[in-house]
Amino acid sequence: MTQDKTKNWDQYGEYLALDTLLDIQKPWSADKATGAFAHDEMLFIIFHQTYELWFKQILFELDDVQMRLGRPVVDDCDMQPIVKHLHRVVEILRLLVRQLDILETMTPQDFTDFRDHLKTASGFQSLQFRLIETRLGLRREDRLLFNHCQYDAGYCPASQTAINTAEHETTLFDQIDKWLARTPFVDRDDYKFWDSYRAAVHTMLDGREAMARHAVDGDILDRELAAIARNRTKFDSIFNKDADTSSSPSSSWRLSWRALQAALFITVYKTEPALQGPASLLGHIMDIDAAMSQWRYRHALMVQRMVGMNVGTGGSAGYGYLMQTLEKHRIFTDLFALSTYLIPSHARPPLPQTISNQMGYRYGTTG
Amino acid sequence: MTQDKTKNWDQYGEYLALDTLLDIQKPWSADKATGAFAHDEMLFIIFHQTYELWFKQILFELDDVQMRLGRPVVDDCDMQPIVKHLHRVVEILRLLVRQLDILETMTPQDFTDFRDHLKTASGFQSLQFRLIETRLGLRREDRLLFNHCQYDAGYCPASQTAINTAEHETTLFDQIDKWLARTPFVDRDDYKFWDSYRAAVHTMLDGREAMARHAVDGDILDRELAAIARNRTKFDSIFNKDADTSSSPSSSWRLSWRALQAALFITVYKTEPALQGPASLLGHIMDIDAAMSQWRYRHALMVQRMVGMNVGTGGSAGYGYLMQTLEKHRIFTDLFALSTYLIPSHARPPLPQTISNQMGYRYGTTG
Amino acid sequence: MTQDKTKNWDQYGEYLALDTLLDIQKPWSADKATGAFAHDEMLFIIFHQTYELWFKQILFELDDVQMRLGRPVVDDCDMQPIVKHLHRVVEILRLLVRQLDILETMTPQDFTDFRDHLKTASGFQSLQFRLIETRLGLRREDRLLFNHCQYDAGYCPASQTAINTAEHETTLFDQIDKWLARTPFVDRDDYKFWDSYRAAVHTMLDGREAMARHAVDGDILDRELAAIARNRTKFDSIFNKDADTSSSPSSSWRLSWRALQAALFITVYKTEPALQGPASLLGHIMDIDAAMSQWRYRHALMVQRMVGMNVGTGGSAGYGYLMQTLEKHRIFTDLFALSTYLIPSHARPPLPQTISNQMGYRYGTTG
Amino acid sequence: MTQDKTKNWDQYGEYLALDTLLDIQKPWSADKATGAFAHDEMLFIIFHQTYELWFKQILFELDDVQMRLGRPVVDDCDMQPIVKHLHRVVEILRLLVRQLDILETMTPQDFTDFRDHLKTASGFQSLQFRLIETRLGLRREDRLLFNHCQYDAGYCPASQTAINTAEHETTLFDQIDKWLARTPFVDRDDYKFWDSYRAAVHTMLDGREAMARHAVDGDILDRELAAIARNRTKFDSIFNKDADTSSSPSSSWRLSWRALQAALFITVYKTEPALQGPASLLGHIMDIDAAMSQWRYRHALMVQRMVGMNVGTGGSAGYGYLMQTLEKHRIFTDLFALSTYLIPSHARPPLPQTISNQMGYRYGTTG
C-alpha cells in the first residue's frame, strides 16, 4: 500500500531495529566513574559485531545450499540458486579479509590500552565461526587441540550442544561427495570415463616416450624416460580403486573414489551444458576454501602485529597456534589436488556422441 | 585477572551482545502463517545493519576529531590521532563501496520479491548518514529538495531534532576553515606567502612569455601569448582578496580567503616538518570527499540496476535523484580546486630561513 | 621436453621479453644534461603502461567473445567460455579502478612537477580505450564532441583507420541484440511470453486495486488508484510494439523490441537450465557497463584532484568534460532499465510444461 | 609550449612506447603453421608483464628511499618522501595480491593447455622479485635451498652478478637498523628510556601482584602469581643487553639491541611531533612485510589450484616449497615481535619535559 511518501521515514529504523542495534556497544574499558574508555575499543566492538552479522549471513546461505544439495536428487533448477548463494559466501569472505584494513588503523599500542579489559573474550571464541567450519566439513578429529583440550571445551553447555548438533548433521563436504558420486555420466551404458581417460593418458605418455627416444639419447634420454615413468606412476595412483579412502587408510584423499572421478569428469568436460553449473559450483567451493585460508593467514599476521609473541586475548590463540591451523583446518584440498591429474585438451578423449547428447538441452535438434 | 583459559568463552558473546545482535533480523516479507520469506531479504537487512554500525563508527571518529580540532589551539600531539582517525573514516568509506559487491549478488528479480514489503523503509532514510553529511559540512541550503520538501521532512520529531542540532553545531568544514586560517607561517614577521607566491608566478609566466617571443612568431605566438594571458588572469583571481566568499557573493569558493592561502602554503611546502601532519590531514579530507562521492555513484548504479527507472523504496530516491546529488552534495571541492594554482617545484619560491627554522624540531642544530 | 631444472631460468625473461619491456620507460621531464627527472613521472609511465597492457587483454577477450557471439547460431558449449571471458573483462575493469589507489599516492604538487613536459600526451588519447568503447557499442553519434571536433580528430591516419574499421564492424551491443532476438522460447508454438506476462501484470494490478477498494477510501483510495493507474501505463508502454526503436523515434530504448522481450524472459525465468548461462551473460554485461562507469567517475575525481579546474594534459579532458561523458557514454543502460518491469515471483506466470521441458537437459526423465 | 590541441594525440603512444609495448606478447603455445594458441596464454603473459612493470616501480621507489635513508643523517624534510614512497610500495604490493583475482579466471584446465609449452619459464624465476627481496633485507643464508642448490643457481652470469651486487650493498633492513640506533632521544642527558620503561613495567607488575594477593588466594593466587612471574621474565629478556644478536647467538632478534630500544620508544611515544614520521615509517615497513607475506600465501594457493601436487613450471616451485618460504622469507618480524613488550598507556612513564620539548617544533612557545 503506497503511503504518503514524505512521512514515516523512521520505518527504516524500525525495520533494522536501529534503536537496539546501535545501543549494544558497551566498552569494557569504560571507567565506572567517568565513563571514559580507550578510544579504539569502539572500533574493536563494531568490527567484531559486523563480523558476527556476516557469519549469520553465511550460515543462512549454507542453510539454503545444504537444503537443496541434501535432497536425494538435486533439481536442475536448483543449480542457479546454489551457485548464486555460494558465490555470495565467497564475496562475504573476501570482504572479511578486506575489512582487516580497517582494524589495522588501530596501532598495537592502541590495542594494548584496552586489551587487559577484554579478559577472556576473544574472536577465537566465535561460536558462529566454529559452526561455519563444522558445517563446511571440518571434523573434530581434524582440529588442532587447544591447550591440550578439545576446541569447544570452553563453551557453555548450550553452545556445546549447538556444535555437537552441527557435527552430527551432514556437512557440505559430505553432500558434495554424495552429489558428485551420483553424477550419472561417469559410468553410463558402455561409457566408462575412467577407462577412457586412462587410455588417453597412456597414449599421451607413449607419445612423449616415442618423441624422446627419437630426439635425444644418453643421459638426457634416461632422465626423460625416468620423468615419464614417474608420470605413469602418478596417474596410476588415481586410476587405482585403492585411492578410495575406505579401502586405503594411508590415502590422503578424503573424497570418495567415485566422487573424485566425477569431479575430474566435470572439470575436463566443463563446457557441456549440463556440466557448466556443476563446474561453477566446484569453482566456488574452491574459492570458499581459498578465501577462508587467506582470512586465517591475514588474521594470524594481524594478531602477530598486535600482540607479538604473546598469546591472544582469552589466553588463547597466539600467532603460532593460528599458523598451525592454516593448513590443518583446510577442508576441500582434494579439489585443489585434482589438478595434478589434468592433461592438455588436445590429449583429452572426446565424449561419445550419445553421452554428449544427454548433457545437451532438449530444444536442440540433435539427439 | 587471568582466569582459567578454557572456561567462559561465552564472555565473547556477552561482550558483543550477540544474543541481541543476532536476534534483530526480522524480514517483513515473512508470511504470517508459514514464516517463509524471500530468501534475499536477510541479506538486505544484514547489509544495511552493518552499514549502520559503520556509520556509528564514523560518527564516533568525528566526535574525536572535532573535539580536537575544535579547541582554540590544536595541540601538536593531536595531529597524530586526528590523522589516524580520519584515515580510519577513509578506510570505512572504502569498505562501504566495496561491500556493494555483496549486495549485487542479489539479482533485480530477487529484490522485486520483497521490495513491496519494505513499504517506505529505504536506505535513503538513514538518519546517521544524514548526520555524517551534516557534521562534515553539508548545509541545508546545499541539499537537493526531495519531492519539493526539505530532506528531513519525513523524519519523526526526535530525528528532526538530532538533525537540527547537528546543523547548528560547528561542522568539520568550519573547523578546518578556522584551523587553516590560524596557520601561523603564512603571514609572519616580514614574510607574506601570498606576495612571495605571486612574484614567483609572475616570474614563471614572464619566462614563458620571453621564451615564446624568442622561439615562435605569427599566429603561433599570438596563441601562446593568449594562453599565458589566460594563465595570468587565472592566478590573479586567487591573489585577489575578492576571492573571499564574504566579499564576493559570486565566488565559487566556500573556504575563506585566509584558509585558501594556508591550504596552498601547506600543499606547496609539505615536506617541512611542521607541515607534514597538516598536509596529511588535508589529503585525508580529500580522500573522504572522494570516497563519499564514489559511494554515491556506486549506490546510484546499484539502484538503477535493481529498480530501473522506478523510484526507490520508500517512494524516494530513484536513480535520477541520486545522480543529481553526486555533485551537489560534495563538500570539500575547494581543496580539489586548489590544484588549479600549483606551479612546478623549480618555480616555487624558497622559504626564508627564519620561517623554515620555525617549522623544524627543536632538537636540531639549526635555528 | 624436461630440461635441467636449475638451468636456463632466464627463459622467463625471454618469454616475457623483459629486456625490452623494462627498457621503455623514458621520462620526458629528464634533464638532457643530468638525466635527473621528476621522481613521480616513472609511476605515471608505468601506471599507464600497465593500463595499456590490460586494454590489450580486454580487446583480446572481446575478439573471442565476439567471434563466438557472431556466429549465426551460438553453440551451447560456447556459453561457458563467453561467460568466462566476459567475467575476466569485469575483473580487469575492477582492477583498473582499484589501481587508481596507487596513482593517488602521487600528490598534485608531484604531478605539477612534470605535467608541463607531457605536452599533449594524455591518457584521454588512448586509442585502445576508444576501440574498447566502440567495440562494446558506443556509437560516434553518442559521443561528446571535444573542442567542437570529433573525438578522433587528433589521431594520426593509421589510428583513425583503426577506429573507423571498428565502427563499421558489428559491435558487442549489436551481437547481443541479435542473439537475444533469436531466443527461441519467447514465442514458440502456442506460447507467447508477452501475452502471458501482460496477463500476469494485469491480474496483479487488478488484485491491488481490489484490495485498495476494500481497505481504504476517500483521498487515500484516490491516491492509491492513481498510483495503480500509473503502473498500468508504465507496463503498457513496454507491451506496446511501438516501444521498438525503429518505429518510435522518441523511444529511449536502443535494444530492439524482440530483444527486450527476450532479456526480460531470461531475467524472469533464470533458473531454467537453458537460461542459466544467458542470465549470467546478461549479468556480466551489466557488470562491465557499471565497472566502466565507475572507472570514468573515479578517473574524473582523480583528474579534478590533480589539476583542479585546469584542463587535462594534452589540453583535453578536464573534470567538467569527463563528468559529461559519465552518463552520455554508457552503452547498456537498457538492461538496467529493464528492472522497471519486473514483478514479484509469486505473480510470475508459470511456464507451460512443454516450454519448460525444452529448456531442460536431455538426460532427465521428463519430456 | 601549447600546441594545437586536437593534433598529435599519438604523442601519447610515443610517450608510452606503445608500438613496442603492445608487440611483445608472444605465446609459446602458438602453432607454427596456424598461429593458433591456447587462449589463456595471453592472459598469462600480460599478467606477468604487468607484475614485472610494478616490480620495476618498487625497485625505483627503493632506490629513492635507500638513497635518503643511507645518508649519515636523515634530513627531517626527507621523512615525508620516504613515508610517501614506502606507502606507494605497500599499495603496489596490495594490488599485486588483488590482481590474482584476474589470473584465477583461468581454470586449471585452461592452464594445462599451455603449461607444457612454458618449459622452464616460471614466475618463480623473476630476477626483479629476487632483487626486491634482497634489497629489503632477505639474506642468502635465510633463503630456502631449491633442489639442493642456491636460489640463484639457475640464472645466467649477468643475473647472478646483479644478485651478488645487491647482496653486498646495504639493505633497507640494515639502513633502518642503523637509523633507529641513531635515534637521539632514547639516551640523552640524564634520560635513559630503558631504565624509565623498566621501572614502569615493574611498578605495573608489582601493582598486579598486590591486587592479586588482596583479591584471591589458594590455587587461584598461585596461578596468578605464576603468570605475573612469567611476565617479569618476559620483560627482563628484552631489558637484558644479551638480547643483542651480536652477544647472544641464540637470540631470535635480528635488529640490534639499540635499534630495538628506539623502535619501542617510537612506538610508545608516537604522538610526539618528531616521532610521528618515524612511527609512520615503521608502520609502513610492517605493512610491506605483511603484504609480501599475503602475496606469498595467495600465490601458493593459486599454484596449488592450478597444478595440484605437481611442481611448478620450470620444474620449480610447487605448493609445498612455496609454503616453506612463507615464514622463512619474512624479513621484519622483529617489528611485529616488539608488540610483546607494550604496556597500557596509563602505565607508560611520562617523558621528561626537556626531552619532550626537544621533539616539538621551534615555533611553539614552550622550551
From TrEMBL, chains A, B, C, D:
One BP annotation, GO: L-tryptophan catabolic process to acetyl-CoA
Reactions performed catalytically: L-tryptophan + O2 = N-formyl-L-kynurenine
Annotated binding of substrate, by residue: R115, T313
Pathway assigned to this chain's UniProt record: Amino-acid degradation; L-tryptophan degradation via kynurenine pathway; L-kynurenine from L-tryptophan: step 1/2
InterPro entries the UniProt entry points to: Trp/Indoleamine_2_3_dOase-like, Trp_2_3_dOase
Family: Belongs to the tryptophan 2,3-dioxygenase family.
Name of the molecule in the record: Tryptophan 2,3-dioxygenase
Gene giving rise to this polypeptide: v
